[in-house]
Amino acid sequence: MGRITNLREFIGIIKDKASQSKAAVLSNPKNITLRLAILRATTHDPFNPPNQKHLNTLLSYGHSSRATAAAAIEALMDRLQTTRDSSVALKCLITVHHIIKHGSFILQDQLSVYPSAGGRNYLKLSNFRDHTSPLTWELSSWVRWYALYLEHLLSTSRILGFFLCSTSSTIEKDKEEEKVSSLTNTDLLRELNSLVSLLEEICKRPELLHIHGNKLVDEVMGLVGEDYLSSINEVWVRVNEVSQRLSCLSFGESVELACGLKRLEDCKEKLFVLSTRKKALIETLWVLIVEMKDGLSRACVEDRRLVVMGTRDRVSKSARFGDRVVSYGDSVSLASGKFGFSNRFMFSIQESVQSCA
């Protein structure tokens, strides 16, 4: 097995050298440095993540013109879409993640709008397969999941109005609590649900069957782990805000919130293993979630009691009215019909949450 691995490494090095030589000869002189930087950051080595020096070179293209940043994104996406090598694809996605986290605004902006006019969804790699070896086959599952996760990350960032895990979004994050407090219930729940969907996607990561200790996968999980902590911060802000609005929520909003809290709790066990940092904040969040669920349940019981009491009162009045104008049998039939009609529309939050499961 070691011999095969060494042979693969040798073939990978030859491919990388050939690609770099081809880029140096055929590329537009203005783009040679860019093409070489991308090739050097996304080599065929299946064991090690991109070199930080080459990533920094790519990130530097975000400090120039918008046209230069657009060319960098286009070249990176072209590399991602044309490769059939799982190592190269995974490194392209890692590079995308670094742009989201550490890129300048102009580079992030070009990433979020590419392609500018329709075209393919450049991170949609659900059909990606590398059949070369058991290792590349397993890495392929990480490519598929990681691409989908980054799509969720970009989508959530659009809904929040800033790149969730970006180090350059500190100004927006400093104003986060003030902004969240001014949101309508609908927008608040929309943002919370989007964050829950992102955490759910983290929980769908592939199992480590034969690649324990693979530095390439470790790099992916390190980046995702940092996103998890950023996401938990944002979830905390919104859960804390909505907890103060429980009495102001409509029935539909209460159901939506209860479903979101249940989905979040279902992620609890798998999320625990991602990081031991911010332990106090995370434990406080789970306590608050339990308290909110209990509050919603109590409100549900009270609402059911009031509805039933109101229905019985209406039934009683209908029966007395029936005694005066129609026969006894007709009055019972009318009352029974009214009671059934009320039940048909009287859904509890608990019943609705079960339908979300």
TrEMBL record:
A Gene Ontology cellular-component term: Golgi apparatus
One GO BP: vesicle budding from membrane
Molecular function via GO: 1-phosphatidylinositol binding; clathrin heavy chain binding; phosphatidylinositol-4,5-bisphosphate binding; SNARE binding
Principal place of residence: cytoplasm
Keywords associated with the record: Coated pit, Cytoplasmic vesicle, Endocytosis, Golgi apparatus, Membrane
Span of domain ENTH: 26-164
Pfam annotation, one family: ANTH
Subcellular location: Cytoplasmic vesicle, Clathrin-coated vesicle; Golgi apparatus; Membrane, Clathrin-coated pit
Identification of the protein by name: Putative ENTH/ANTH/VHS superfamily protein
Originating species: Tripterygium wilfordii
Lineage: Eukaryota, Viridiplantae, Streptophyta, Embryophyta, Tracheophyta
